[in-house]
Design brief:
Shape: globular
Number of helices: 4
CATH topology: Sortase, Chain: A
Radius of gyration: 20 Å
Distance between the termini: 58 Å
Largest sheet: 8 strands, mixed, barrel
Helix content: 10-25%
Structural class: alpha+beta
CATH architecture: Beta Barrel
Number of domains: 1
């Protein structure tokens, strides 16, 4: 009986090990190919529409986004100079196997409201594996067909009380402060990072965690990134909120200086 139990435990352990290898490594390879295809298709589409390049970044070009199709690129310099992912429309399992996915009911890049995207943290390309490492004022750069948009991570809850003294002189923090000071009390519950339950969808509302509505002229231009927490679990969600601080029209040969930050 003891021998049989030992064999069962060994078999179970091997099965778990094979599942982990598949989930972490095999799905990464599959997603990498899908991400490369999506990125190449996006580049080809942008190359075919050069007239969009001169668009005003304050009036982002909106097209009918196709579910599962890439429409933007995401860069997070603090996570490495090679950190780049094509962002697809939609957050279905099939969409997120390709790369970060845009919550379809949320704002687009550069728009008022909340541009929200989801991504895997382990396996399937794991674009948000190190999302927890982001600090306040770190740049999150989004490129679409017409412009570059620079978002910066909002103050962490523990930083808000002494923000001006501690971070006010940091040039990277220009345009970043606790949102309730610049946009009113409705934004009092929008820190740079939070951990929530999976059902707390209010984190991707136009005003996160508010539960009400504001007129467009009172909305901040935000970006929210969501992923599972902790790693290897979907018990909670890790949320990172950032605010738009700058935008640039696209032009030949130009790259935002923020991409070189570390």
């Amino acid at each position: 009986m003891v021998r049989g139990l030992g064999e069962l435990l060994i078999t179970t352990g091997l099965a778990v090990l094979l599942f982990v290898v598949y989930e972490v490594y095999v799905t990464d390879l599959v997603s990498m190919r899908k991400q490369d295809d999506a990125d190449a298709e996006l580049n080809a589409r942008w190359d075919a529409t050069p007239d969009v390049i001169a668009a005003d970044p304050r009036r982002p070009v909106r097209t009918d986004l196709v579910p599962g199709q890439a429409f933007a690129k995401l860069y997070i310099p603090a996570l490495g100079s090679d950190y780049q992912f094509a962002v697809v429309e939609g957050t279905t399992p099939a969409d997120l196997e390709i790369g970060p996915g845009h919550y379809r009911a949320t704002a687009g890049p550069g728009e008022k409201g909340n541009f929200a995207i989801a991504g895997h943290r382990v396996g399937k390309g794991a674009p948000f594996n190190d999302l927890d490492l982001l600090q306040s004022c770190d740049a999150v750069v989004v490129e679409n067909e017409s412009a570059w948009f620079v978002y910066r991570v909002l103050p962490m809850e523990r930083e808000e009380a002494n923000w001006a003294q501690d971070k006010g002189s940091d040039p990277r923090c220009l345009g970043v402060q606790p949102l309730d000071r610049s946009h009113g009390a409705a934004y009092a519950d929008t820190p740079g990072q939070e951990i929530v339950r999976p059902e707390q969808a209010e984190v991707i509302d136009p005003v996160p965690n508010y539960g009400g509505e504001l007129p467009e002229d009172r909305l901040a231009s935000l970006m929210t990134m969501t992923t599972c927490h902790p790693k290897f679990s979907d018990r909670q969600r890790l949320i990172v909120h950032a605010v738009l601080t700058r935008s640039y029209p696209k032009r030949s040969g130009f790259l935002p200086g923020e991409l070189a930050e570390r």
